[in-house]
Structure to design on (573 residues):
């Protein structure tokens, strides 16, 4: 039999309320509704499934105070993380949220009512206190930033009636509720299960340490990665789940099961470790691996760690007797090349050669396409990671040329287009000012607002194309620094952005204008013309400045190619 849930009873609200589903659904349609944020939705999912047992809703003030001050619910049960429904004053007033009221909780993704909360109380938390007691108080801590900058100023406590589970469209079969996982363990005949929490890809060291933990306890393994919200900058869960799936057959005789946990992590170190243990206990695990700096967010901008490396292990140790799940301290594994094996670091005799690849080093090797040895990871895992992290030579980028009309930017853009097409390896998209004006922005004029809109559209398209690995060449006038900065920001989410200032002087652009556009502008036939009666803000931090009055198009293209080459973007693998 699986481990009993925290508090003794699995609070599977979906199963509990299934007989009343129709009724609750109809009631919710008539109630005011609160549209939950992504984080609140993650919390609700685990309240509904019993993952947060013994919770049956969002914490009221009594429970909240207990959890913040003493890691305890009002009924005495150990609980370390305040699970709260934070709302703004406006939302509370607009929806009549007050004690006794029933309010629907809605999924922002598909507008479905998932639950009804019966409001117990509405209270204003002492956020400074919560920040200090729960997360340690460093204002740079991501959960504290969220608390201060994003969370609403009031909390609403109350029990929940469950209407329906959330809809998921990715990896549905791997999303086990606690009840489903318990049933699965039962079917497999597993009574001892070591759960492994992760928000990162898994490699050989992780496989070794989980197998060791299982061997020592004669148990099986539950790989239980977080697919809700993790630390910004983490590898996306789609890639990670493919990694875990690739790794799974490397466990002998089906000794491991993969289940996905829709948790919104807080990166709360010691408090989070206790919370994680409780959640795994609710999912039926009997053992839980807690590693060095478990669920820690690293260090702040001054390089100071938010938590000590063993704070989390000490915290779970402290509450060992009432946790009801055996915590297995995570031993950091290292590779011994001379004997081709992994061993816990602290068991390696001095003088023995060891090898490790850090996360930073791994990311670098993925970026450059450098070798990732088999002693570190399995080829099938590396293949998945490489698909999601193509080397620089396969990554998208945007070259954004800005300058006066007839500055030569269009000629450079066209020449760069054929140069990159000649090189091959990527699709190349050319977004000339006139093409965009014709295809995307035909209703826009040349006021500041319209120009900003035009550049924002170019930036959006460039960013999407960059994401899919294309080379993008954009060449609008883009006279405003702010718009250019915004474009950079958007594109850099997905790849490199190079701002090339085509600094050909206005006089030259005007003198060589064979189309007579400047003449028309001077004659007042075109108004608000850049350089004539409209401003051009000269870029202060262009990645490259070229000038066709003193140089030529070919040289400018060559300079851009050199820039791209230096960044490894044009390497032929
Ligand atoms: N008032 C005014 N100011 C600047 N440019 C004007 C204006 N009116 C029309 N045009 C013609 O529009 C083309 C420039 O558009 P852009 O999209 O590059 O401008 S912007 O980046 O949105 O500022 C460019 O067209 P092409 O010469 O065909 O490239 C300009 O000649």
């Amino acid at each position: 039999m699986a481990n009993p849930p925290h508090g003794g009873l699995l609070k599977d609200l979906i199963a509990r309320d299934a007989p009343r589903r129709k009724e609750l659904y109809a009631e919710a349609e008539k109630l005011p509704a609160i549209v939950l944020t992504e984080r609140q939705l993650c919390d609700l999912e685990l309240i509904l499934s019993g993952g947060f047992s013994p919770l049956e809703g969002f914490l009221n003030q009594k429970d909240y105070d207990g959890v913040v001050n003493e890691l305890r619910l009002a009924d005495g049960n150990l609980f370390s993380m305040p699970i709260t429904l934070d709302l703004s004053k406006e939302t509370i007033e607009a929806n009549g949220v007050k004690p006794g009221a029933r309010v629907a909780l809605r999924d922002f993704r598909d507008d479905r009512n998932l639950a009804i909360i019966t409001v117990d109380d509405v209270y204003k938390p002492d956020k400074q206190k919560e920040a200090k007691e729960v997360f340690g108080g460093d204002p740079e801590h991501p959960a504290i930033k969220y608390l201060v900058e994003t969370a609403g100023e009031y909390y609403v406590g109350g029990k929940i009636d469950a209407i329906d589970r959330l809809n998921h469209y990715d990896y549905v079969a791997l999303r086990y509720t606690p009840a489903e996982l318990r049933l699965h363990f039962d079917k497999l005949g597993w009574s001892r299960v070591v759960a492994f929490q992760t928000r990162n890809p898994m490699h050989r060291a992780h496989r070794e340490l989980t197998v060791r933990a299982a061997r020592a306890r004669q148990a099986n393994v539950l790989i239980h990665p977080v697919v809700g919200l993790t630390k910004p900058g983490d590898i996306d869960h789609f890639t990670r789940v493919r990694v875990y799936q690739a790794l799974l057959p490397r466990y002998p005789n089906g000794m491991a099961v993969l289940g996905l946990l829709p948790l919104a992590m807080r990166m709360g170190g010691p408090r989070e470790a206790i919370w994680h243990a409780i959640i795994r206990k609710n999912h039926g695990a009997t053992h839980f691996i807690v590693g060095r700096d478990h669920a820690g967010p690293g260090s702040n901008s001054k390089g100071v760690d938010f938590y000590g490396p063993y704070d989390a292990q000490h915290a779970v140790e402290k509450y060992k007797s009432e946790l009801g799940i055996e915590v297995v301290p995570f031993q950091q594994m290292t590779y011994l090349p001379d004997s081709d094996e992994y061993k816990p670091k602290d068991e390696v005799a001095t003088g023995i050669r060891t090898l490790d690849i850090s996360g930073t080093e791994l990311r670098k090797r993925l970026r450059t396409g450098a070798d990732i040895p088999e002693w570190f990871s399995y080829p099938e895992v590396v293949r998945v990671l490489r698909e999601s992290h193509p080397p620089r030579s396969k990554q998208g980028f945007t070259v954004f040329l800005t300058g006066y009309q007839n500055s030569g930017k269009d000629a450079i853009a066209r020449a760069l287009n054929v140069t990159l097409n000649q090189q091959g390896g990527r699709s190349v998209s050319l977004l000339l000012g006139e093409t965009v004006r014709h295809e995307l922005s035909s209703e826009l004029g040349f006021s500041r607002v319209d120009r900003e809109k035009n550049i924002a559209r170019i930036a959006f398209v460039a960013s999407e194309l960059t994401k899919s690995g294309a080379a993008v060449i954009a060449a609008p006038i883009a006279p405003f620094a702010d718009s250019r900065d915004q474009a950079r920001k958007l594109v850099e989410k997905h790849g490199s952005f190079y701002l090339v200032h085509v600094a050909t002087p206005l006089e030259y652009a005007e003198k060589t204008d064979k189309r007579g556009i400047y003449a028309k502008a001077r004659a007042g036939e075109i108004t608000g013309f850049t350089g004539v009666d409209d401003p051009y803000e000269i870029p202060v931090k262009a990645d490259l400045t070229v000038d066709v009055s003193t140089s030529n198009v070919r040289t400018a293209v060559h300079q851009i190619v050199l820039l791209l080459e230096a960044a490894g973007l044009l390497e032929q693998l």
